Amino acid sequence: MRTGLIFIVVGILAFQATRNQFVWGFFGHRLINRLAVFTLPEAMIEFYKSHLDYITDHSVDPDKRRYAVKTEAICHFIDLDKWIYENHGIPDKDYLKAILKNSAIYLISKDSSTLLFDTIYSKFKGADSLFYCKYWMDSGLITNGGIELQAICKAIKLHNFNLFDGKDWIFPANYFETIVPFIQVDDMIEIVDRFSNHGILPYNLERCYNKLVKAFETENVNAIVRCSAEIGHYIGDAHVPLHTSMNYNGQLTNQHGIHAFWESRIPELFAIESFDFVVGKAKYIGDVRERIWEVILESHQGVSMALEMERKLSVSTPDDEKYCYDTRLNVVVKTQCKAYAKSYMELLDHQVEERMRESILTLGSIWMTAWYEAGQPDLNALLNKPLNTSEEEQDSFMLSKSGILDREHE
Q1: Structure confidence by residue, pLDDT tens digits, 305-347
Q2: Cβ pair 231, 36 in contact under 8 A
Q3: Architecture (CATH level 2) of domain 2-79+202-399
Q4: Residue spans in the chain of domains classed CATH 1.10.575.10
C-alpha cells in the first residue's frame, strides 16, 4: 500500500505541474486515466507507465470526435430515466435486442412500405417476441402472431452487421426468408432505430472493451494504448450521474450549467487539493457487461442528489456569491466561485470524489481484465516497440473539421 501511495503521489505531482496547459473541461478525464495506471499489477504497469503521457492526453479524443463523427455523441450517455419510466425497468443489456424492442420495423416492397412490427406501441412491449401489426394479422398471410426476437437477432448477426456505424438499417429479403413467411425476393426489411438517439454508453463501453481484448491478443501496441485511453473516457462518463439522465444539464428543471459544475468545476478546484486517490489495486471482473451496468445504475442513483443539492444551494446563496471571474488559457470566463463550489461538494457528501475514485479503480480493473482474457501477453516484450503517430495526425485533421451538433452542455 505504501509503494502504491508513492506512485500515486508522484503521478499527481507530475499532473499538477502541467495542469494549466490542459483545455478547460478535460481535467477530470485526464486525471482518471493517469491515476488508473498506478492500480495495475506488476506484469502490466511498466508498459502502461511507458505510455503514460499518451494515455493521459488521448483520454479526451472521444470528446473531440463528437464534433466530427455522426454517431459519436450518443456513445457518451444513456437516458436511463426515459427507459425506466416507459418500460418500468432498464433496457435489454444486449444492444441489438434493445434496439429491436424499441423500434418500428417495415416491409419495403416494390411499390409500398408497410409497417410490419411496431414495438413502441405494442401491448406486448418489452417481450422477447416481435408481434405483427393488425394489417398483417388481418391479411391471411400469417399463421401465428409474430416471431421470436432471438430469430431476427441471429439473422442480423449472421451477416456481421455493424451496429455502430450510423448507416440505415435496411436489409435484403434473404436475411429473413426463413423467418417472415410471406417476404418476396425483391423485398427489403427496414428497422427504424428509435433507441440509440437516447444514448448507448453501456453498449459502447462493451464494444470498446472487446476491441481492447483484441488489441492485447494481437499485441498491437498502437491499438492497446489507443483503446486503453479511449475506454478510460467512456468509463469516466459512465460514473457521472448526469450522463444517465434526460435532465443532463438541468435544462428540465431550470438548473442550466449543473453538468459542468459537477463534472468540471469541482474536480478542477478540489481534486488535487483534497481528494483521496488511494483506491487500491485493480481487480479481475468476472462479468464485464454486468459490471458496466452496475456502474451505470450506481451513477443513476446519484442524479436526484446532484439536482436537489444544487437547487437547495442556489436558493440559499445570493447571486453575487455564486459566480466569479477566472482566467483560462488567457480567456476570462465566468464560473462558480470556489466557496460556492465547495459548499456544493459538501452538500453532495463528496459524491464527485467518490465517483472519481470508482472511475479510477474500475478503469484499471477493465484494463487488467481485458489483458487477462487475452491470455496475459508479455507486455514487457512490447516496451521497445514505438507508436505509429501518423494515425494521430490524421485524426487531428479530422477532428478540426467541426460540424456536428452536440448536447448543449458540451
Answers
A1: 999 999 999 999 999 999 999 887 788 889 999 999 999 999 9
A2: no
A3: Orthogonal Bundle (1.10)
A4: 2-79+202-399
